[in-house]
Amino acid sequence: MATSPVTPVEEYQSLLGVLPGQDLAWLRDLRDGALRRFSDRGYPTPRDEAWKYTNIAPLLKQSFIPSFSVEQPHKVLPTDIATSLFADADMPLAVFVDGAFNSALSNLSALPPGVELRSLREVLDHDGASLESLLVGMTPQEPHGFIELNTAFMFDGACVRIAPDTVAERPLHLLYVSSGAGQPVASYLRNLMIAGRGSRAAVIEHYVSLGDAAALCNVATHCMIEPGAALEHYKLNEEGAGAHHFAGLYVEQARDSRYVSHNVAVGGRMIRNDLRCVLAGEGAECVLNGLYLGRGREHIDNQTSVEHRVPHCSSREWYKGVLDGRARGVFSGHVMVRQDAQKTDAQQMNNNLLLSDEAEVDTRPQLEIYADDVKCSHGSTVGQLNPDVLFYLRARGIDEIQARRLLVTAFAQDVVGRMAIAPVREWAERLITARLAR
Amino acid sequence: MILTPWDVRKIMGETSRNLEHLIDREYKAGFVTDVEQEIFPPGLSEDIVRQISAKKGEPEFMLEWRLQAYRHWLTMSEPRWAHVNYSPVDYQSISYFSQPKQDKDRPKSLDEVDPRLIETYEKLGIPLREQEMLAGVAVDAVFDSVSIATTYRGKLAELGIIFCSFSEAVREHPELVRKYLGTVVPPGDNFFASLNSAVFSDGSFVYVPPGVRCPMELSTYFRINAANTGQFERTLIIADEGAYVSYLEGCTAPMRDENQLHAAVVELVALDNAQIKYSTVQNWYPGDENGRGGIYNFVTKRGLCRGINSHISWTQVETGSAITWKYPSVVLQGDNAVGEFYSVALVNNYQQADTGTKMSHVGRNTRSTIISKGVSAGHGQNTYRGLVKVLAGAEGARNYTECDSLLFGDRCGAHTFPYIEVKNRAAQVEHEATTSRISDDQLFYCMQRGLSREDAISMIVNGFCKQVFKKLPMEFAVEAQKLLGISLEGAVG
Predict the structure, then answer these.
(1) pLDDT (tens digit, 9 = 90+) per residue, B133-190?
(2) Rounded to two decimals, what is the model's pTM?
(3) Which chain B residues have a beta carbon less than 8 Å from that of A378?
(4) Which of A363, A372, A384 sits opposite B409 (nearest CB)?
(5) Which residues of B282-307 are buried (b: 16+ CB within 10 A; e: fewer)?
(6) Can you tell me the distance from the alpha carbon of A375 to that of B435, in angstroms, rounded to the nearest whole number?
(7) Is 0.95 exceeded by the ipTM?
């Protein structure tokens, strides 16, 4: 990345031939434009309001090479990823290794009818025109350096289409593996999810690493929720101690649609999620459910934004954080109610638990309201485990570790409880317990 | 202000009776700019700073201090992060010094004052004598107030309390000024504070000696020579160990001023076991109903709880100014220190307010409370912006924040931007905010019981703000309630 003599701009020029969608002029323009904006503005700094609490300067001292420029990609075996799979063998699975689709590890035969999953690279190479309006249309409102680089370098990702009126019984498991072998690599992933009119589906975006080597993952996901559709979207971050993860999630909801996001971040040196949800059709509803558990020197930054553009929409947001060690948790929740969005019902809550003296939390709930007939509220708390409650449990023979585990599990329970898919819920519960086993 | 307490029902009756002729916001500048007045040419330079200092006969250290601030200001740029829009201020077109008005330029009696202004005074229930004061009637015509002020000053002097203009303090008590000036808001703190430090005209100075409880509410009102302190006011209040003082700034009566930019600085210092209570009612000219004109109020207010068990509380009612940029803050340095912020901010027409507070918890067991009530009407934009910061050493710090917004009409905005930074696990921080409008059910309930729509709204709004009004000195609270009703007129119904 930055300090290596190769700048992203030079890198782009030398690697242009490797990127998919060579013969698409619009894609070339899109990539060029993003790169131009990046070279004008560069990486975000703490002087940018949205990056006030996340300083990426140390990261820029390391160098990462784009994953697709690696000549001998690391081979990942099914046994390597076995522990990352959910206890449901029939769950359709798509595996991406270091930012590229791996069909040998995937299991797409289990895809239910009406659900299509293709690799973005393949679509761009063979059927690119079908993605033009989607990709061009998803430029975020306030793009920062990482998003621009993602657009310039997007290489692969999952392209999911749910046909209208399909009810997918099994969730789709998208597993992104960082192999950590060889030189540190940067993966540029772009996912597209289109939930057709009246459809119902669940997708699990799951990020893991094989070890604690340094890696950078830059991912952008775009979800289009068509009228009356419902999408349940899980984003699970369970990477190694050397992982840097920058994700953008852009959701656009049409009339009477429902979008539920479960965002769980439990591992990685630095995780940054930019989640933006636009309620563009009346009667749309979104639920943003989040949990972040930090320890060691982990840095987890969730920036969420919900925009109510039209009347009669509702949004709910619940984010909870547990910070231990020297971890730092950052939360920003922006709710914007446009002038026309009367009868909006927006609620937001962020609760944080600090388990150690060095842990830090910076939280910033924000309401920006231009309509009067609305019900909006937000709340935010920071505190520690209640010593009286701990004492109560210990007085009844429960040792301190057990008691703390019990209380933290209870604290996170409502977030975990909102997850509809049982294997994921169990995974989350196991993880919480494992992380508190000290 | 000295007022007999009002019966709430009576107030409400009066407010509604006069509804149609509300406070007229179209007034032209009531004070004529006087050619004979001594005014510096527009523009700012080191020379101007030197001249201001010379004019005021300041000691050398003051001049140095101003010059340093000025040089620092040159390196700074105007902050743009606030949620407000205004045309840029040309700092070179402002005149940075003008002598206070001479008596001969003032109106000789109330008959010469804009009748609409008088009408507003009457609505607020301000006694005649005070009306004369506020309207700037020549001092000799209001000798009663002069004698009141003199009596009060005598009483204060007996207790060793220093209460005088800033210029006087610089001349008479340079050691105190030197010791405390800039210790809370350093000259390089922010763009507007730097500007103020370089060119401040005058202001108030209060020093309460150890163990003294100031027996009355101090107010600039009792300081006759405080009239027209100008646009760059500087206030410094020091409560020495175990002292207590309550200070009132501003008044409910509409204030006119030909200066558009106001950049004041207020510094409070509370030593061990001291308490300072600072209340503000601000009703500067807000501009006309189309958003033309109006005061830019860019104020830096900060209190330092330096000693153990010290206590600083800010209470503000902000209804005026076209643009308000104001964050009365408390640095809780001493152990067990307490900081409080109670605020009502109201915007109507095209007013914009970006206001809130900063509570920095440094000492152990420090506590802070923030209650902010925002009312938006017309095209007004009301923003709460606050920071609660708990440093690693602030063991057992506690904060409670509540920000509520009330909206009238579909063209206004209410925004809440709190920042919470916690570095200590034994801290407990809570923030909550709600936004809503007056529900039809509430209105119906009141109107069904015979209240007019305006009275019902006034009552609901006053109920909404009650938590803050409770903290104001009683006379102030009564006027503030009425002021809110008046300021909202035209916005309701």
Answers:
(1) 655 554 333 334 444 555 677 788 889 999 888 888 888 899 999 999 999 999 888 9
(2) 0.84
(3) 416, 431-433
(4) A372
(5) bbbbbbbeebeebbbbbbbbbbbbbb
(6) 6
(7) no
